[in-house]
Specification:
The protein is built from 11 helices and 8 strands. The protein is α+β, with helices and mostly antiparallel strands and about 200 residues long. It folds into 2 domains: about 1-25 and about 135-199, no CATH class; about 35-130, no CATH class. The strands form 3 sheets. It has a 4-stranded mixed beta sheet. The protein has a two-stranded antiparallel sheet with strand order 3-4. A two-stranded antiparallel sheet has the order 5-6. Strand 7 (about 135) and strand 8 form a beta hairpin. Helix 10 packs across helix 11. The two termini are about 20 Å apart.
C-alpha cells in the first residue's frame, strides 16, 4: 500500500490521509461503542484532568455508579501501561468512567451530554473530539497528525465515503478549537491543491 504523504502546516506534520480519506460518525450503527472498547482510556492533554475536575459537579450525576466510584478511587486521570495520561476505565471492563448508557443501550459521553445541555465549560477530551485523527509530539518538537483506523469505526469510514465527507471537513470544529481558524484555513488550501494534483 502506498505510504501517505506528509504535509507541513505551521508546526504540524499532517498525513495526507486526513485530506484524502472519508469519515463521518455513524452513531446509529455503532451506538457509541468507542467509549466502551479498548485496553486503555482516552488520551488526555495535561490540562484536561483539571477541566474534568472543574466540571465534575455538573456531569457526575449522569455517570454510572461504578464510574463515580472509580473516580473516587483513582482521580480524574490515570497513567496507563504505556506511560500515557488517560481517562480511567471501570475496573474489570473496557468502559470509560465518563460514559453511560441510555434506555435503548446507546453509549454516550456524560461530559459532552452535559455540555450540550448548557452545563459545564468542558466539552470532552480533544483526543475523542478529533478522532479518527491522533496527535503525537515528535522529538524535534513538531506535532504529528495521523489517521487512525479502528475496526469498530469501519461504518464511519463507509458513511463518510457515501456522503463525500473528507476527514478534515468532518473534524472542522475540533481542529479549529485545537489549532485555530488560520490553521484550518491553511488546511483547506492545502487540501484543495493536494486533491487537485491527486486526480
Amino acid at each position: 500500500m502506498k505510504q501517505p504523504a506528509i504535509i507541513q502546516i505551521g508546526e504540524c506534520l499532517v498525513s495526507s490521509e486526513i485530506f484524502t480519506e472519508y469519515f463521518a460518525c455513524d452513531y446509529g450503527t455503532c451506538k457509541g461503542v468507542c467509549c466502551v472498547a479498548g485496553d486503555s482510556g482516552a488520551p488526555l492533554d495535561e490540562s484536561e484532568p483539571a477541566a474534568l475536575a472543574e466540571n465534575y459537579a455538573a456531569y457526575s450525576e449522569l455517570m454510572s455508579v461504578k464510574g463515580r466510584e472509580t473516580v473516587d478511587g483513582t482521580g480524574f486521570s490515570v497513567i496507563d501501561s504505556d506511560g500515557d495520561l488517560v481517562t480511567p476505565l471501570v475496573p474489570g471492563s473496557e468502559e470509560c468512567v465518563y460514559s453511560n448508557f441510555d434506555g435503548d443501550g446507546n453509549c454516550f459521553c456524560t461530559v459532552e451530554r452535559c455540555w450540550m445541555n448548557g452545563k459545564g465549560t468542558f466539552r470532552k477530551p480533544i483526543s475523542c473530539w478529533l478522532y479518527p485523527v491522533r496527535i503525537s509530539v515528535l522529538g524535534n518538537g513538531l506535532t504529528a497528525l495521523n489517521l487512525h483506523r479502528w475496526e469498530i469505526c469501519k461504518c464511519a469510514f463507509e458513511k463518510g465515503k457515501r456522503e463525500n465527507i473528507r476527514v478534515y471537513r468532518f473534524l472542522k470544529e475540533p481542529i479549529i478549537h485545537r489549532f485555530g481558524e488560520d490553521f484550518y484555513s491553511e488546511m483547506e488550501e492545502v487540501a484543495e491543491m493536494f486533491l487537485s494534483h491527486s486526480r
